Amino acid sequence: MHIKTLIKQFLIWRYKHISQKNFVLFLSTFVGLLAGLAAVTLKNITYFIQNTLEKGIVFSENHLYFILPIIGLLIVYLIKKYMFSKKLTPSVPPFIKRAVPSLLYSLLRQKGLLSYKLIYHPLILAPLTVGFGGSVGLLGPAITSGSAISSNLSRLMHIDKKTRTLLIACATAGAVASMFKSPIAAIVFAVEVFSLDLTFASLLPLLIASISSVLTSYFFLGDEVLFNFTLTDKFTLHDTAFYIILGIGTGVASIYFTKIYFAVYAFFDRFKTRFSKLLVGGLAIGIMLYFIPPLYGEGLSFTKDLFDGNYLHALGSNLFDEYLDNIWVVIVLLIGFTVFKAIAMTTTFAAGGVGGVIVPTMVMGSALGNVVAKIVNNIGLGHQVSESNFTLVGMAGLIAGVIHAPLTAIFLIAEITGGYELFLPLMITVAISYMITKNYMEHTIYTKELAERGDLLTHDKDQNVLTSMSLDSVIEQNFITLNPTMSLGDMLHKGVSKSNRNLFPVINEDHVLVGIILLDDIRSIMFDQSLYHSTSVETFMQLPPGHIDYEKDNMRMVMQKFQDTNAWNLPVIKQGKYYGFVSKSKLLTAYRRELLNFTH
Prior knowledge:
This protein is mainly alpha-helical and 600 residues long. It contains 26 helices and six strands. Strand 5 (569-574) and strand 6 form a beta hairpin. It comes from Xanthomarina gelatinilytica.
């Protein structure tokens, strides 16, 4: 109670002395700091687990490290079941399987309110998954934890929905900035993924949050960067064709990545219990690790070895060691890694692991870029390209294709290199990869399930307004219902005389809508008493010009039906039964009200 009193007193003081604009800037700084701390905590816990396993266990020497992921998944399973068994409030629908889609859904349908439990759940479960060799990344959990911190802080400070959305985007930018030490890419990522309007009002808080988070990362981790890359080979005009080929390759690989993602999840959805998913997934990951050791964990060390040209160390000890002096065997193994990285990542998720998508995507892209460079250098064209440059650009191509964030991909890789010498090849590869995947697949692994259910915000403001509207908010149920066998007299006395509406739904004994009666249809005969007992409701009723399906139709479909039918009222059918009506006037009023929320 004392804390609540202090918060109340602070808020009163804040309203008197600090403007809303300055308060948002202060909160964005604080959110960036906390998001950076969450990311640093994730990294440190994960590396502690990895180092403990490497030093204390001799699995790697005996080629038995492949059993570690199933142990990690089992620990995660037990913690979820016995420690985190209570459902999160507000809860996330079961069709949403990843961190970023759950945030997008929360921003649309739950006013950006996230459970406080999401602050610490990822900090425990993700390091166990990745530390024990799960083939996933840490960025997704860092975003989830930072966003939950931002959401609960906003609730504590009585922040409105629009500002709360901005602060959650700040937390996301902070997590990305802290992970990669790339503040510009972090801002662009938040804008592209959360479909924010890029105005000065939103740009400044994002910038401050990114700076705050990066400084936090520097304070705790020093100048350590994700990839210590120094550009030695500059881009030449003769390399253009090969970067175009790389763009095509990463575009095709992005489509494969997305297809595999949903295919693996569909396969695991056949299993009814989490434990059966764990067993099957753990065994599958173990088998893949036995034959392809670099699939272990995030894979960042694999990519670092490719940057250094040490592909033998990157591939590790495997069944093909005696053939690694043949460069084509190396190329085939790298292709195999590229193919199975997507499978291993999704299997880890589907088996119950907690992690992110972006880092595995980058690792997979680095392998693909290295493959293209090796093929060019060894195919006998007499032309040599920089393998490290292609490794780097391949990462950007796959990021752009998989999550449809081309600007994020360009600026992220540009910041990693510490300069913009590769800006042109990055633009070439990223543009081609993005165009291929965007034309083939409208939505990404983040947005596909949301889009199919009409729960996706985009940069189209009109569409966002319709998407954010709730059908329940415009349904009217104050209509007097009629029975088709009711006489005209009964209809007038029991219906028309007691209603202030000019529309009457006609339903049968099973509450199924069989027609409607408009007051205009009976106005000319309603005072003819000779018809009161000789005619019934079904004589005058007509079929509605259309209907709204409560379970299937989103607000965009509802608006389209009004346009197609030119109706003023349309009935709503829920589970085959009459449920109410939606009027065009109320729909347009609600639309204008929601539009004001998006523009102010």
